[in-house]
Fold these 2 entries.
Entry 1:
Amino acid sequence: MHFLVYFSIFFTILGAQLVESSKCSDCIASGKHWCVTVNECGFSPCLTSISKALNCPELPDKAHAYDDTFVRTKILLTTAAAFNNNPQKCFKNSMPTMTLSKTFSVNCSEVGPQTDCFGFTSFDTTQKVVVMSFRGTQGATQLTEEILDFFTGKKPFFNDAGHIFTYFYDAFFFLWNGGLQQEIRRLKYQYPEYELWVTGHSLGGAIASIAASYVVHSGLYTGDQVKLVTMGQPRTGDYDYAVWHDKTFPYSFRIVHHRDIVPHIPPQYGKDELFHHRTEVWYNNNMSSTDPYLICAEADGLYCSNRQLDSYPPDHLTYFDINMPDWGSQGCPKM
């Protein structure tokens, strides 16, 4: 009963938010805050308010709607395959039409001990798709380097596309300059009309966000040719990056499992504020095949997973009821 009441309240609030979306944007543009509690501009005192335009409620259009089945049967595999040094093992077992093109493994830290970042490209002539996928954080050393780099700030991405968290920025460009650029250009030349899927978990999700953005900003692909889906993605860039991203990609989803802590770091507030781009899909459950999910109307507001005040570390490794690093390293056996 409590479960049904929770969702009833949520969708009542969400419905009101969506009706007032344009008013919310106009309100914030005028220098005031939008009070969600009463759906009024500048109302005070306000229990819950929106002060950033990117958090004004908005959902993907129907042509680019989220599809749980598509993600479970296809994107989950391309994401998990990055945890295998030979992703073809995953394709052979669970998606035989997909063919590995090339893998990339580089030292993704300029200083300190060597920590590897890994990604791959693949293609599928049946589904007419090219894939870029990136592995998540591996081991305590890499995790420590990422945390320490929280204090080093951000780097400019493009003049009109904000700033990227330093560690993620460097990790992408080490991969890009380590052979990924040549390979994705070759695949684009060979399959010019194919759709591009860009996927990743954790650190790999951040790299995927940057990779998708880079190939579009540089003119290799257009935003509507790309499907970006990440799982457990940490905050990757600043507010300006999130704004540019949301104007560029009609199909972009950040999936968050229940109490996964990683999507909430680095912190949203402070000297080097970072901000999530849209669209969060929150599974506040075990992510089994019959479990519901929420398409979050705010980019990085107080609804959905940001409501959680605690964390549960196993939720970061387990998505769609599968321990992704284990499943991927085992060759993605059929379930």
Entry 2:
Amino acid sequence: MVKMSLMISAVAAFILLLTMVPLSEAALSANYYDQMCPQAENIIYQTVCNASIYDPKVPARLLRMFFHDCFIRGCDASLLLDSTPENKAEKDGPPNISVRSFYVIDDAKTKLEKACPNTVSCADSQGPWWNVLKGRKDGRVSIANETRNLPSPFSNTTTLIQSFAKRGLSIKDLVALSGGHTLGFSHCSSFSARLHNFSAEHFSDPSINSEFAINLKKKCPIPNKDHNAGEFLDSTSSTFDNDYYKRIVMGKGVFGSDQALFEDYRTRWIVDSFAKDEKLFFREFAASMVKLGNVGVIEDGEIRVKCSIVN
């Protein structure tokens, strides 16, 4: 319960990021709302806590939402915009069809507008476990096709390293942020190719633990009539911990992209370090989240009244 409370606190931080993008580097501050809307962080924290009571999947969903938003155009809340007849938005891009819990953002934004009208945008946040610089504005552009640039569960390590580097994120950031999968769940479609007819030499991906592969095949048979079938990305799915890395070390990474981190010499030692030292993972995850939250500085923007539409 303590670790889940920590994660709710962190996700509450992400919402105040999903509920502003920087005007300039100098304009950002961890204390940006202290005078303009001092109750903002408490409003967001309580919103996330309340939503998580009714749906324990909320923290994981919001963590994924944060990553998917920041990785495309920076943390400008472009993922929250609805499609229009003239434009298919990020929200409706193939990788984002399964993104959930937008209602939590909407609830937080409604409360923020009531407490501090036209002050807190849909893209900004900070939590008690690390400071996220604030002072952002919401973006006006959201394009579904750009979601092709999101990391894929089928990507190899070289592709992932290059993708993160384009956003100013290091190899360490790649491995640390992948740790967000500690709360993740995946449907069979994202990993079943690793289980069946992998190659002429191996029926399954040889990097998968053989016993684990058997269990996954039972959950994801061919043909698979259960479209909700899948697997959690670690064995402690309701706890934010380092179990994700321990499972990768054992060959029990669900995604090919996850297991590849242990197969590549450039990332293997980092996976190993996080698997052995949970406190180290927590520190590096927090540092990498700060870097991710500052990807994509824009010069103009707005403060949306409603997160799903531009003003």
